[in-house]
Design goal:
Blueprint lengths: L5 E14 L2 E14 L3 E5 L6 H8 L8 E10 L2 E2 L5 E2 L2 E2 L5 E4 L3 H4 L6 H13 L3 H14 L5 H5 L8 H12 L6 E5 L7 H18 L2 E6 L2 H7 L2 E6 L2 E7 H6 L4 H8 L40 H5 L4 E5 L2 E4 L13
Parallel strand pairs: 3-10, 3-11, 8-9, 9-10
Antiparallel strand pairs: 1-2, 1-4, 4-5, 6-7, 11-12, 12-14, 13-14
Length: 333
């Protein structure tokens, strides 16, 4: 792995939601670091805690019912869970940008696209409306929206899904952030537009040495754009490492299960997709041992009531699975 400085450090993050049915422990002790100029993908099934993790970092979880019970998130040597401002300016939108999952519901349907991008610029850079609007048109052109000047004067319902996603990206990068969080940025887009969006993000990253946090369930997208991977399950990170290590030397049964459920695009190769049997854990009553115990094909007695230790597979690859203990009786390899 290329040696890069740390842009963001998350330590022992815990997030809960107090509901009528009880307390949901959505994120349980998550720790990781994001490096400048690299893309870190967070992967896992729906409900595993991917989006809640990044929304907590950005201060976007609703309070109540959401609550961060423990943890620190350091950006520029400051714990931004305690203070979202650096030098008097809100880091959200300026130093950390975010592309939301569904642009149709994230954009204001009553405002023109150009005005929405310009509003971000006015808020964080202090430009006049006319200058901000001109910059907004430049940004829409940068993200390859044709006839950017005309599109800036249109409403969201007048644009295609691909154009809306590009508009969201324009808003997210308007202030040249150090970190860009992309939450399922290519959901519901066809493969051609998806490829264009990913290529565009990669070009922006190289130009600005920007760190990208990519939230996705699509392992194909991960293989195309990611440098590092965090695999989440049951509100925890169960495996993390260099993308090549994760793909070629998967060391957690859940990661292996995700790969088995992924179709191949290799010409002439036939593959039977194997679903992961069972259901994710009940986070109203999280398992006291390994969160994957009920679905794991190589589960051992120790897994049920003992949280797995972290094992070093290589310098850039760690996993939380008892199968790597020196006295383990089962192996998933």
């Amino acid at each position: 792995m290329i040696n890069k400085s740390i842009a963001l450090k998350v330590s022992n993050l815990h997030v809960e939601f107090d509901t009528y049915g009880g307390v949901i422990k959505a994120v349980r002790g998550v720790s990781f670091s994001i490096k400048k100029g690299l893309t870190t993908a967070i992967v896992g099934e729906s409900g595993c805690g991917k989006s809640v993790t990044v929304q907590s970092i950005m201060g976007l979880i609703p309070k109540p019912p959401g609550k961060i019970t423990r943890g620190e998130v350091y950006f520029e040597k400051q714990d931004i869970l305690k203070n979202k401002k650096i030098n008097g300016k809100d880091i959200r939108g300026s130093k950390i940008g975010m592309i939301f999952q569904d642009p149709m519901t994230s954009l204001n349907p009553t405002m023109k696209i150009g005005d929405q991008v310009a509003e971000t610029i006015q808020t964080h850079l202090g430009l006049s409306y006319s200058n901000a609007f001109k910059k907004a048109i430049d940004l829409l052109d940068l993200v390859q929206i044709p006839d950017a000047k005309q599109r800036a004067s249109q409403y969201p319902f007048e644009l295609s899904g691909g154009m809306l996603q590009r508009s969201m990206i324009a808003m997210a990068v308007a202030c040249r952030p150090s970190i860009l969080i992309a939450d399922e940025p290519t959901t519901a887009l066809d493969v051609t537009i998806q490829s264009q969006i990913l290529s565009m993000l990669s070009d922006m990253q190289k130009e600005n040495d920007m760190a990208i946090i990519l939230i996705t369930h699509d392992l194909g997208v991960v293989a195309e754009i990611a440098d590092e991977v965090l695999v989440m399950y049951g509100g925890e990170i169960v495996e993390k490492g260099d993308v090549n290590e994760i793909y070629n030397n998967s060391s957690h049964p859940y990661t292996l299960g995700l790969k088995e459920a992924m179709p191949t695009n290799i010409k002439g190769e036939k593959k039977t997709l194997k679903p992961i049997e069972g259901s994710p854990p009940d986070l109203f009553r999280p398992p006291i041992g390994c969160s994957y115990f009920d679905r794991c094909p190589v589960a051992m007695n120790v897994c049920e009531k003992n949280r797995p230790e972290t094992y070093e597979i290589s310098k850039d690859h760690h996993t939380n699975c008892w199968a790597h203990h020196k006295y383990a009786t089962n192996s998933f390899k």
